[in-house]
Amino acid sequence: RFCLPLVLASLPTMATGEEVAPALQDSWGDFWLFRFFVNAAGYASIVVPGFLLIQYFKRRNYLETGRGICFPVIKSCVFGSEVKSAHQDDGSLPLRAESTESSTARQVFKLLFCAAGLQASYLTWGVLQERVMTRTYGATETDPGEKFQDSQFLVFMNRILAFTVAGLYCALTKQPRHGAPMYKYSFASLSNILSSWCQYEALKYISFPTQVLAKASKVIPVMMMGKLVSRKSYEYWEYLTAALISVGVSMFLLSSSPNRTVSTVTTFSGIVLLAGYIIFDSFTSNWQDALFTYKMSPVQMMFGVNVFSCLFTVGSLLEQGALLESLRFMARHSEFTAHAVLLSVCSACGQLFIFYTINQFGAAVFTIIMTLRQAFAILLSCLIYGHTVTVVGGLGIAVVFMALFLRVYARSRMKKRSKKLPPGETPVQKV
């Protein structure tokens, strides 16, 4: 009874390495780990009753005994049609358009359109993300202004717009018949929310270039999750490129200037949050990969995941009373409102450009474009926000992107070779 308040009061001390003054004892609510558990408790208040309902309907054998007006909804949410495609490619992506049907100039125009759309969407998104999380709003000569603190509200803003765009797209275009139980999207939704939250929170402790390089290194935990979740196997070149990426990221992280004022504990918090982002994001991609065995399009996946993302985030925000506080912050600072809306627009448009690019040109071209986007994002962040990169850090960045391009090249060669395999043989699955 007496230990819990003491532990909570000591959280800011562990976070900053400083003594807590009596007047600041309530500041433990600003510690990221505390906020993480509060958010998780909010999600659990929705997940646990939902889990109990699903188990109740399954024990009652509701699929055979259920009747009434709610039966179609419960069947879709709990049971689905349980019809899976024999091959994942049947439902995960529409067939790529044949380039022979259009001229070379048209294909070049499409490629430039996709590249420009992806670069504009995600470069703008990266710049705004760093602006919102690291700078103040309403600063004057006499007032230092205030920072926006609630990363979960930004996640909610992104997801509500993505949900709207995906819903409109599904309503206006023909989509495959949906067969997956809706509740299965909640797993990817939870990990997606948590990965996005960790991504926003990490910017409070580390620089944006460090975060970009950490994202580039997520192929390592993706491979680990692939082995655990999907039982995948990998080629030697995949392990080699993963090792090169690890070396490059280590060179960058260890090349920090000795005169940096950021505390060791603060840097450690940023690294832990980045690790959380990578782990949660790796689970999301592998779980979605397993869900694509049902006959669905990527936009249906986007819609299903964002339905639960909106439900979880708005529920947690309302329970904490943070939704109204964030709306008041938007009312006080119109500049933040514009940034938050534009951030959400860029995120939703970027997802649509991803689907269109992969549909038209395949995953290899898309990966090259996004790898270039990461390099441009680091350069843009250094120019706008004044981040410094040492020579060793620059070499580390070069090693990372060299490994990424080597990975794309090796994967394309393996795909060409797999097309020549005898009918009875199947190629090794890749990340």
Verbal overview:
Pfam families: UAA. Keywords: Membrane, Signal, Transmembrane, Transmembrane helix, Transport. It is a multi-pass membrane protein. It comes from Nicator chloris. It is found in: Membrane. By secondary structure, this protein is an all-alpha fold. It is built from 17 helices and no strands. The N terminus and C terminus are likely disordered. It is globular and about 70 Å long. The chain has a domain of 297 residues. The longest helix is centred in the N-terminal third of the chain and has 31 residues. Helix content is 72%, strand content 0%. Helix 8 packs antiparallel against helix 12 and helix 8 crosses helix 13.
Helix-strand blueprint:
Elements (H helix, E strand, L loop, with lengths): L2 H14 L15 H28 L2 H4 L5 H9 L9 H4 L11 H31 L16 H22 L12 H18 L5 H9 L2 H12 L5 H19 L9 H28 L6 H23 L1 H11 L1 H28 L1 H23 L5 H29 L12
Helix pairs in contact: 2-13, 6-15, 6-16, 7-8, 7-13, 7-15, 8-12, 8-13, 9-11, 9-16, 10-12, 11-17, 14-15, 15-16, 16-17
First-last Cα distance = 48 Å
- The count of strands amounts to 0
Oligomeric form: single chain
Rounded to the nearest angstrom, the radius of gyration is 23 Å
How much is the average pLDDT? 79
Low-confidence residue ranges: 1-26, 85-101, 257-264, 423-431
**Element-level helix/strand string:** HHHHHHHHHHHHHHHHH
Quick overview:
With 431 residues, the chain is an all-alpha fold.
